Amino acid sequence: MSHMSRLTQGLHGEVAVPGDKSISHRALMIGGLAVGETAIHGLLEAGDVHRTAMAMSALGASVKRRDGGEYRVAGRGVGGLAEPSSVLDMGNSGTGVRLLLGLAAGHPFTSFFSGDASLSARPMQRVTAPLSRMGASFLGRSGGRLPLAVTGAPDPIPLVYELPVASAQVKSAVLLAGLNAPGATTVVEPRPTRDHTEIMLRKFGAEVVVEPLPEGGRAVTVTGQPELAASDITVPGDFSSAAFAIVASLIVPGSKLTLRRVGINPLRSGLLPTLREMGAEITVTTLNDGDGEALADLQVCASELRGTDVPPERAPAMIDEFPILAMAAACANGTTKLRGLGELRVKETDRLAAIARGLEACGVRVEQAGDDLTIRGKGRPPPGGAQIAVELDHRIAMAFLVLGMTTQEPVGIDDAAPIATSFPQFIEMMNGLGAKIERESAS
Ligand code: S3P
């Protein structure tokens, strides 16, 4: 169903965005490996996380929702998952499938994974390569793509693995497989990526050691075969969802918005320093740690933004925020350079191409050279007036709807359904704050 976003007069109010997607996946998976019953408060109730909940149930964990939205996961213990009797359809969820491949790789049974057209086009070899070295075997399409079968290792081999790409999904897949291996499994990451897996494993009682490396990287080691104890998890608001409301408030004149209890893990929230460099007025009030995850209330006021240069080293800490940052850059005064964006090509769609194409259609000058994107802002919103093909990508859909809030001509998207994979309340929440996002009639 296509939607369009029209010029709005300002966004105002106070909201809490839904739970963090990355942390929600991990809570279900690690809860499923613990001994006892894990309670999860604030789990993200969205398509991707539902897929993981269903998959964990199929693998033998019991996942139940209570009235009021709390989830209970009865775990099977490390190494205790059971062979699923049907194909695990992971929908659109790259995190779901890659982390579950790690879990399945450490269990001696065969499971089958499938996904939608977007997920089936994404590379899985980045996880199957290290997991094969731990003793698992895989049968998939060319490039190791889904649908994919995995037969886990009866005796997984601990591994020392240097990540060829900065990817928290690959790191987490190897660490989760390493849970069932005797001895230490180490992932060396040249650039630190989000550490939600490490934080949560520790919370459940695993031994996880993180060593800084000379060039800024890290070595993360998990000791295998721990007894994980069920825990109580409160999931923070998703910074990646909050990012859409943050940028919307910055670029729609007159806006003032407060976002409550947002996760601001420093390895996730690289958008904040970037926006500040652009002149954004954002007040961060830190709150007590939520389960080792940094938490804050954020207050955002409409601001006059200027162009900036985002260094490639910062990319992993804001990898999901480039689509929405690009919308801010399109309204800023001057040139913004986004560098080291190679990984955007293998997200839910080729985001590098989708951002460039969409912005050009909205009247913005954009240059793409290799993995870098240059966006030339004019200090006022671009004309808009384009219809964007979202290609099953929730973040492309939300980013362009945000741009349409400040352009003279509306910005449309051809399909709003993918938004439900991460942020089902997005349209209703933004409209509640003053946005004008409407369903387009099929005429
Ligand atoms: C995620 C890691 C990132 C990110 C994705 C969630 C995670 O992917 O883009 O949305 O939860 O570990 P990569 O690890 O492939 O960069």
User: In percent, how much strand structure appears in the residues?
Assistant: 25-35%
Give the names of the bound compounds: shikimate-3-phosphate
Trace the largest sheet across and list its strands: 22-23-1-24
Mean pLDDT: 97
Count structural domains: 2
Category by helix and strand content = alpha/beta
Can you walk me through this structure?
The protein is of the alpha/beta class and 443 residues long. The protein folds into 2 domains: 3-19 and 236-439, Enolpyruvate transferase domain (UDP-n-acetylglucosamine1-carboxyvinyl-transferase, Chain, Alpha-beta prism), CATH 3.65.10.10; 21-221, UDP-n-acetylglucosamine1-carboxyvinyl-transferase, Chain (Alpha-beta prism). It contains 13 helices and 24 strands. A 4-stranded mixed beta sheet has the order 22-23-1-24. Helix 3 (94-105) runs parallel beside helix 5. The mean pLDDT is 97. The protein binds shikimate-3-phosphate (S3P). Residues 22, 95, 167-169, 172, 194, 319-320, 343 line the site of shikimate-3-phosphate.
Keywords:
443 residues, alpha/beta, UDP-n-acetylglucosamine1-carboxyvinyl-transferase, Chain, 2 domains, 4-stranded mixed sheet, 13 helices, binds shikimate-3-phosphate
Write the layout of secondary structure elements.
Elements: E1 3-6, E2 12-15, H1 21-33, E3 37-41, H2 47-58, E4 62-65, E5 71-74, E6 88-89, H3 94-105, E7 110-114, H4 117-120, H5 125-133, E8 137-141, E9 145-151, E10 160-162, H6 168-178, E11 184-189, H7 196-203, E12 208-212, E13 218-223, E14 232-234, H8 239-251, E15 256-263, H9 271-277, E16 281-290, E17 293-301, E18 309-310, H10 322-331, E19 333-338, H11 351-361, E20 365-369, E21 372-378, E22 387-388, H12 394-403, E23 411-413, H13 426-433, E24 436-439
Parallel strand pairs: 2-15, 3-14, 6-7, 10-11, 18-19, 22-23
Antiparallel strand pairs: 1-23, 1-24, 3-5, 4-5, 7-9, 8-9, 11-13, 12-13, 15-17, 16-17, 19-21, 20-21
The chain binds shikimate-3-phosphate.
